[in-house]
Model the fold of this input.
Amino acid sequence: MPETVIGVAGLAVLLSARLLYRWIAGRTQIQLTRLRQQGTSERLRDLPPGSIVTERRTGEELRIEIGTGGGESRG
Done:
């Protein structure tokens, strides 16, 4: 009987550690994404109208055109 209790307790500790690890990894990924986006926003504020910024990251490409309002035609 004590071996069963020890086994169940060990399994509970392992599952808790795995859950904690996944939570920390997910939270870290979210924070890194926020910091990356914040850095992009700060750099874009200093650019003059008409600038085009292209950022390439793993598996994605972001293209931003500065100063092109929604009502303007691009011709």
Remarks:
- Residues 2-45 form the longest helix (44 residues).
- The chain has one helix and two strands.
- Strands lie at 52-57, 60-65.
